[in-house]
Amino acid sequence: MMRFRRWPRPTAYRETPRKRAAFLRKQHLEREALPLFADAIAARQHGVDEEMARRHVWWDEREHDQRDARARRWREARARLFALPDLLRAKVRGLWRTCPYPADPASFADFLHQIAVGRLDPDRPPWVFHQRSQARITANPATFNEAFRQIGRKLVGGGPDTSPTDELLFCGNLGSGILFLTSRARLLGQNESFYTSSHHRLRDFDVARSDHWVEIDVRGECSESDLSLIEQLAQAANTRPVIVRRIDPLAGQGGQLRAS
Length: 260
Fold this sequence. Notes:
Elements: H1 17-33, H2 38-44, H3 48-82, H4 86-98, H5 105-116, H6 144-147, E1 149-156, E2 165-173, E3 178-187, E4 212-219, H7 224-236, E5 242-247, E6 254-259
Parallel strand pairs: 4-5
Antiparallel strand pairs: 1-2, 2-3, 3-4, 5-6
Helix pairs in contact: 1-2, 3-5
């Protein structure tokens, strides 16, 4: 069944005192516009009762003409609909039932026109949300910043004689699935504090302390080639040694260490 909006039932012309007064005021303004010809203009003007009777006749004719014009546009639009192939016609009828367009023949004709010229795809209508079928990946990234985006940062550690350090959280997708990387700076000395200055982070290129190294934990589906790529990108972005390890999400333990 086609979706359509019913046309209001025909009604007789409603004569009101305001309409009669408006007509008399209009005639008065016509006479005042040309005062030298006021008598001639008044002689050609007809009375308000005659005007109301004329409007009653005109109103019925106008209602009839509008209904005929609307029905004619519906017939023309439906003829275009039934000229479509069977599968496309069924799809278009289903879309018309759910689309947000007004249920009138002009909107339906424009709806068919948009499909005919390719502006409206029946398989992907714009009023329906279409979720991406593929995840956003970064294939063959050239830098660490291109492959991963920082999504979190917090201070960890710290104490009476030490300063807390930044623990940064990154996310990205190299093709196997989404990965979460946690990076932090550590000290090489066994008797030194576990944490270092909060100014030492993965993206600081000016820090070149030989007594620090960067540890990166990788969580998610990560192949050996992806792990090697992460190591290369991270080392290129930092002057300190970088160690990358895969974290088992179930056991919560680190896997094989990769140092560079």
